[in-house]
Design a protein that fits this description.
The chain has 181 residues and is mostly helical. Helices cover 62% and strands 3% of the residues. The protein has one domain. Strands 1-2 form a two-stranded antiparallel sheet. The radius of gyration is 18 Å and the shape is elongated. The C terminus is likely disordered.
Length: 181
Amino acid sequence: MEIRCPSDCPYLATARVHPAAVTVRQQQRDLASLAHAVRDLSERQAGLFFLINGFLQQYNPPELQPLVDVDVVEAVAALAGTFETAARGVIYDHRPSALPADRLATALKPVIAEAGKHGGTSFDRDAAVVLRRIEEAAREIMTADAANRRAYVDLLGRVLKEGRDPEAPGGDASAQRLIVP
């Protein structure tokens, strides 16, 4: 049963303050995974890491094809290869083999380009490091939860959901609900 609650509902507030133990353990695992992924990145690299992951979390693939971890891995691996060759002075655009991954990489390029507007060749190296780190993290999480084709994407949704703007499309602040079993 679902009950529409006002934002000041004491039961909803209590549920937010004291989540179920399963939820707390999941949050701890999720945060540990991301903390491991950013363990030795510089501040600029960590910012880029969260920028890219925020984009991945909000990405809506065309043609009703859900974003799966394999597409994320292929897209960031291809982009990492492009930035690695650019850092060596060679311009070569690496492309993912799967069409959904190629679409994701194409959509992600302008986001990274905007972030590195004034970064120069050092930004190319930083972007390659960050993209490889995202690839590594996604592979590890895919391996840990092989039954879930969206394990990494789901993790991003759980961890980065607090950053959503309730005024943004899809973030209806008035639609807060309490689910009662």
